[in-house]
Amino acid sequence: MNHRYLVHLAYHGAPFHGWQKQPNALSVQQLLEEGFSTVLRQKIELTGCGRTDTGVHARDFYAHFDLNIVYSQEFLDQLCFKMNRFFPTSVVIFRIFEVPIDLHARFSAVSRAYRYYLNRQKDPFTTDQAFYLFGNLDVDLMNQACEVLKQHRDFSCFSKSNTQTKTNNCIITEAYWDQTDSQLIFFVKADRFLRNMVRAIVGTMIEIGQHKLSLEGFQNILERKNRSLAGESVPPQGLFLEKVEYREL
After folding, report:
1. Given this model, what pLDDT does residue 103 score?
2. Is the pTM of this model over 0.90?
3. Residue 123 and residue 60 in one domain
4. What digits encode the pLDDT tens for the residues 161-185?
5. Tell me: the pLDDT tens digits for 93-141?
6. 114 and 88 in a common domain
7. What is the CATH number of the domain that holds 66?
8. Residue by residue, what is the 3-state secondary structure of the chain?
9. Which of 76, 99, 122 represents a domain boundary (last residue)?
10. How far is CA 85 from its chain centroid?
């Protein structure tokens, strides 16, 4: 009988080519699977709560693995300690714990939230955690665009092509821009996200903030569902997966 174990972790995305395993490039999934397999002395395969692109960070990430072995929580706590010593500083394991076998790291998640950080002044200490953008932006207009965004469900205009998803529909429950002295921060929460979706939204909203695109034009892009009409995707280093939520946890 298999038992399912959930790993709660975070990672700095700069050293990695995203979460997903791929040939000839280091990914977070590969690093974790090799580490767990070495420490547990058997092959471990992890299923993540989603995919992050190269350079994207995750403050809140979950992955599960199955074994036909029962581990006590005390053993899992010790395993967590060992893994944190094993992995580089770019990855931290918060907790490892057993969950019901039908709890799936990806498909059981009910919501995900992202933040994208725009630096308003040059900062050498956050170059791999934010995107520096010169010039003023109309934040009030960008927040009006957020209200338009929440009225839609089909976000084909912000998705990479040929992603093999069954639907491009997402339910966005929150979207807004915050402003500090040195940064603009975009927050968005939805039941699911498409590949490249957040970075494409931010790139398009920057055009709104620069008065290159009107709210009517933004509405038209959403309605026409054509990726080529939307703005360019912003660089990955400013994007953070902030929160993943499950009903069962």
Report:
1. 97
2. yes
3. no
4. 766 677 899 999 999 999 998 899 9
5. 999 999 999 999 999 999 999 999 999 999 999 899 999 999 899 999 9
6. no
7. 3.30.70.580
8. CCEEEEEEEEECCCCCCCCCCECCECCHHHHHHHHHHHHHCCCCCCEECCCCCCCCEEEEEEEEEEECCCCCHHHHHHHHHHHHHHCCCCEEEEEEEEECCCCCCCCCEEEEEEEEEEECCCCCCCCCCCEECCCCCCHHHHHHHHHHHCCCCECHHHCCCCCCCCCCECCEEEEEEEECCCEEEEEEEECCCCCCHHHHHHHHHHHHHCCCCCHHHHHHHHHHCCHHHCCCCCCHHHEEEEEEEECCC
9. 99
10. 25
State how many domains the chain has. 2
Judge if 67 and 114 occupy the same domain: no
Identify the pLDDT of residue 181. 86
Beta bridge partners of 64: 6, 47
For residue 172, the enclosing domain spans 110-246
Query: Are 25 and 46 members of one domain?
Result: yes
The total of other beta-carbon atoms located within 10 Å of residue 131's CB is 21
pLDDT along the chain (249 residues), means of 10: 95 95 93 96 96 95 96 97 95 97 96 97 92 94 97 91 77 96 95 94 97 96 91 96 94
Residue 105 lies in a domain: no
**53 has catalytic annotation:** yes
Structure tokens that stand for 26 in this block: 């280091």
Same domain, 130 and 217: yes
Q: What CATH number is attached to the domain comprising 141?
A: 3.30.70.660
Query: Which residue among 38, 67, 99 closes a domain?
Result: 99
